[in-house]
Amino acid sequence: MLVLLFHLLSSFMVLAISLFLGKTVNFESKKLNNIIGGYGLTGIVLVGIGIYIGIGENLKAYMFITFLGQLVIICFFLLIFSLLKKDGYSKLINIYSICLVIISHLIYIYYIIASFIYY
Asked: At 25, phi and psi to the nearest 5?
């Protein structure tokens, strides 16, 4: 039961982080906005693959690493949201948001690969 809880929480954290990006990033270029939409779609695909593949029978260390990594990234996103309300959009906030989503996706890819290796 605890394994399923960690698995679902990690998966939905990645989904939330991927979808937060559209809310925090604001570019004037349509091409860059389409790239941001691609990151959201990539997050949805990763979560679908992770839910399909990543479940195990017992709790392993890579589940904790993934969960804590996603939790830290969500805390950073909450900090970015408070900066958005205070200062508005800026290039630095856009770059930080994109970097956080890329790191989140890499951590979740590690989770999917680790579920293959350690199963």
From this structure: -105, 135
